[in-house]
Amino acid sequence: MSASLSEKTDASATGNTSAVNHDLQENLRRLDRLANLGLVSASIAHEIKNGLVAIKTYVELLLEKDGDTEMTEIVRRELKRIDSLATQMLRLSAPKSTMLTTVQIHEVLDHSLRLLEHQMNGKMIMLKRDYRATPDTVRGDESQLQQAFMNLVLNGVEAIGSNGELTVRTELFSDAPGRNGLKIFFQDTGPGIAVENLSRLFEPFFTTKKNGTGLGLAISQRVAEDHCGKIEVVSELGRGSTFIVSLAAEL
Ligand SMILES: Nc1ncnc2c1ncn2[C@@H]1O[C@H](COP(=O)(O)OP(=O)(O)OP(=O)(O)O)[C@@H](O)[C@H]1O
Ligand SMILES: [Mg+2]
pTM (2 decimals)? Predict the structure, then answer.
């Protein structure tokens, strides 16, 4: 993208307007193709989900009659996986309907953590909250933010496995006069991330987990970007990882 931008500048400097037009048209075509791809993925995901409703009902009936419990479990698990894959795909590609309100980030974090607390207790994962942002308000979509936070906490929990610490910290920052933001840190004591994987984390479908869809971070990043924000990651092998979500604050 930046390469074609600089090409454009060079071309206009030499007065070559047809090259500028060509670049512009090529970029527009690319954007159009991407938008279409999103629409096609969303439609396919939607059709898969619709088909699954019928398949699930029929398969459940068959499974009730059949006594093979191992097979039953496999079929149920796989159906659930396809269903959640289609749901994630739909969320990633469907045109988003955002509900913007004033969101209290600490409340959303508490709610997300409450939903995962049971899992953490069972795995002896100690949860630490270190909320420093006052005020903690952003303009945003509460349910999308919750989805992103839960993805990040879940990744931390899955990385730790058992016995470890998960810290959720917030703080305010200002990167330019009048431009204030809120950062949320999700820090885990998991194994860290290999250097060769760092650049691929946010790619849709990139996963190192047996049953992962590889969509959690792609979705979370999109949520952050929809809030004029971003997600960064700092990781050290053997020590753990920290995912940092930056959002524009509403002060
Ligand atoms: N906190 C973390 N520590 C170590 N590795 C991580 C962490 N978070 C993400 N990763 C790596 O990034 C990959 C992509 O994460 P992402 O959340 O997108 O998908 P997933 O967790 O594999 O599957 P899903 O979220 O769909 O269940 C993971 O498979 C894992 O390799
Ligand atoms: Mg994940």
Answer: 0.72
